[in-house]
Amino acid sequence: MTLKEIVKILGCQVVVGKETLDTEVRAGCGCDLMSDVLAFIKPDALLLTGLNNPQAVRTAEISEIKVICFVRGKQPSEAMIALAREKEIAILTTSLPMFEACGRLFKNGLIGCSEYDE
After folding, report:
1. Which of 14, 15, 86, 118 fits a disulfide with 91 by CB distance 3.0 to 4.6 angstroms?
2. Which neighbouring-strand residues pair with 28?
3. Are 25 and 6 a contacting pair, CB within 8 Å?
C-alpha cells in the first residue's frame, strides 16, 4: 500500500514527507509502547501511535520504519518534525482513534507485522 493510499484511507494530514507519497509500506503496527515496537515491528512498516514525543521518531529510525502516523489528532512538536526530516521519516496525523485507524487499513489490505515475512 502506498503512503498516498494511507493518507486517503485515514484522512491524514502530511506533516513531513509530502515528496514520499509514492513510497510502499509493507505492513502496519499500532502501538504506544516503544519497547513492543522494537520487539515486533518489521522494516518498511507504518507505525500508528499516540505516543507524541521524540522517542517515537528515534524508535522508528532504529526499526527502519518509513512512516509514523500519530492518531487521535496528536500533533508533533517542531523538534520532532526536525528530527523526522533529518532521519527521512514521514509523519502523518489523523483524528481517528488507533483502533479505527488500524481497522480501516487492515480492511483495505494492509497486513500486520505478524503476517509480514521479511
Report:
1. 15
2. 46, 112
3. yes
Q: What is the pTM of this model?
A: 0.93
Q: Which residues pair with 93 in a beta bridge?
A: 13, 70
Q: What's the CATH number for 3-108? A: 3.40.1390.20
Task: Report in angstroms the alpha-carbon separations of 72 from 4, 15, 35, 53, 96.
Answer: 20, 15, 21, 14, 5
Residue with cell 500486520: 112
Choose among 26, 6, 9: nearest CA to 112: 26
pLDDT averaged per 10 residues, the chain (length 118): 97 96 93 89 91 94 94 96 96 98 96 73
Cα–Cα dist 73/87, whole Å:
23
